[in-house]
């Protein structure tokens, strides 16, 4: 029965590949950039597009719920209350396409080159949402769906999901489910299906340093008035020691140690020095001494400057002591660090290290703790089996260096674990120019999703 359903659904997908692909292209053409205020009509258009598609598939109660910014889509296909319920998470918003001149083709006019489909959002994550929709259409058109499906697709992921927690709180019973499938992470390589069991958290800061009330002549005042740009550089340089460790007081206090067993598991992923050098196109790696690259990026916390501003940055020279300097600083956190503790720790560091000549302000712009599945989430075995049947290899289990705060929110508010996975690849150039989706992997992903949904 199951095997028969899989074959029928796969045959449907093959037969209907054209219209499904055309619809994906139409979705990718909508520039649903959540960060750009002038893209609001496009955001709405993308939400409507998905609501209409789910309606057409026979989903019920499909609606784009308004929030203070961009709507959240909910839609459901309930076959029986006795069946397990899978909540599919996705986001239809995309990163801004800038810098535009570095794109080989228009970011919102998808183009197929070799095995890749190039477009903003192709991999992160319209293509991933589309994979779940293709799998469900193929099943619904050819047999019965043995599970209940609920979709939650937000439009604010790329701006930090400001409306999501409230929405989860307010719609707990509507969203009740047994597990969340979140395909917003990816896999390690086209032949390495991957499930992510831990994510790093985030604490993001803006630090502003003020010196004189206005820019001053550096000849008339250099030597008596302190320079916020000099001080900011020194303060930032002091945030790491010679061993690549972060020097903020108590920064590592809550960090969970990596067991030997886990360390061995992680070493099997093949994410070695060469792997990162090739992907990042760098001559050598940096980081904390005493840990392997895969540990440093997944199981150890880090601190990075994400942006710097001070003084005169236009062409030519201008001899000033700037009035102001600013840095955006992010820390990536691991279990069991708390973003608020890290905020306190950075404050303490600044109190100690910024001289009295300079006034400073620090804002915590966003914060989310790390996420780790403590026990085997329900459904993981089904999902692993589906990946294995599709790729013919045992799926890898990895830690992800990035943050998916939604997984933490689902756990804390709905009380459910997430299967964090996806069919994007490390070189998909997400958030960068020339974002792309590897179509052969995408197709396999759809096959795996079909196998997963009918496996119950
Ligand atoms: Zn994403």
Average pLDDT over all residues:
95
Outline the low-pLDDT stretches: none
Q: Could you give the count of β-strands?
A: 18
Bound ligands, each once: zinc ion
Q: Can you summarize the main beta sheet?
A: 6 strands, mixed
Structural class: alpha+beta
Helix content: 25-40%
Shape: globular
Write out the strand line-up for the largest beta sheet, numbering strands in chain order.
Answer: 1-2-6-3-7-17
How many alpha or pi helices? 14
What is the distance, rounded to the nearest whole angstrom, between the alpha carbons of the first and last residues?
11 Å
Radius of gyration: 24 Å
How are the SSEs ordered, and which strands pair?
Blueprint: H1 2-15, H2 17-28, H3 40-56, E1 60-65, E2 72-77, E3 85-91, E4 111-113, E5 116-118, H4 122-140, E6 148-154, H5 164-170, E7 179-182, E8 194-199, E9 201-210, E10 216-217, H6 218-221, H7 228-237, H8 260-267, H9 273-280, H10 293-298, E11 302-310, E12 320-321, E13 324-333, H11 339-353, E14 359-368, E15 371-372, H12 380-391, E16 396-400, H13 405-414, E17 418-420, E18 436-438, H14 439-454
Parallel strand pairs: 3-6, 3-7, 7-17, 8-16
Antiparallel strand pairs: 1-2, 2-6, 4-5, 5-18, 8-15, 9-13, 9-14, 10-12, 11-13
The structure holds zinc ion.
Zinc ion (ZN) is lined by residues 91, 124-125, 157, 184.
